[in-house]
Amino acid sequence: LRTRDIENNGNGPLYRRLQSALKAVIDDGILQVEDALPSERDLATELGISRVTVRNAMRALVEEGVLVQRHGAGTFVAPRVEQALSRLTSFTEDMITRGMDPGAIWIEKTLGHASPEEAMALNLSPGTEVTRLRRLRTANDKPMALEYAVIPRAFLPSPDEVDKSLYDALAKYNKKPERALQRLRAELFDGETAKILGVPEGSAALYIERRSFLANGTPVEFTRSYYRGDSYDFIAEMQVDA
Ligand code: GLP
Hints:
Layout lengths: L2 H5 L6 H14 L12 H8 L3 H13 L3 E4 L3 E4 L3 E4 L6 H7 L4 E12 L2 H7 L6 E11 L2 E11 L13 H7 L6 E10 L2 H7 L6 E10 L5 E10 L3 E4 L7
Parallel strand pairs: 3-10
Antiparallel strand pairs: 1-2, 4-5, 5-6, 6-9, 7-8, 8-9
Helix pairs in contact: 2-4, 3-4
The structure holds 2-amino-2-deoxy-6-O-phosphono-alpha-D-glucopyranose.
């Protein structure tokens, strides 16, 4: 990182330019997950800029979820979450496995009637009653994904049944899914979704659609999610046909 690169990095306040220059260093893999950043003082001296500028840039990156600050230890590149594509797990399970604290912030919890698209995904007649859950999913309070789940009301009588985990609520009724189909696609965050997740508009998103089924093949869930492209890796194991 050189002072010149930061100064020439667009316009706007210097700390913003430093913020995006640091982000680029991480995106390029020069600094990797769990790598420590130099101290505020060292970076300021090295770049010949004020400590306040460095502090503001780092703070903004912590807010963006790109960096984590650990008390007494320093600032590090935040870990990415890896999720296996072959195992059916819930967000809650995924986070707990990684030693992170899963959370959900509710945006919508309602009963409604299946739209034609939802009816098709869930194999229902259009208009059938469904439970709708729209949640911001967090890990250690960092926003990770925006999820919109639609469940036939027959399987989840009231949205209030869900406290933190949807799959735990379904398990209570013996309706935890056993199989799922998932579609992933790259998208860009629109303004509204970006704002909810605290990322810049137009940044990379991973759109994931999951339809999950009971053991007997009945669809139980249709969920559309937007995961932060900067925080998530999906891992698949592949084999050549026998
Ligand atoms: C993942 C899936 C969703 C599923 C959710 C359940 O995030 N993408 O389709 O609904 O897990 O997680 P939880 O039980 O924590 O609500």
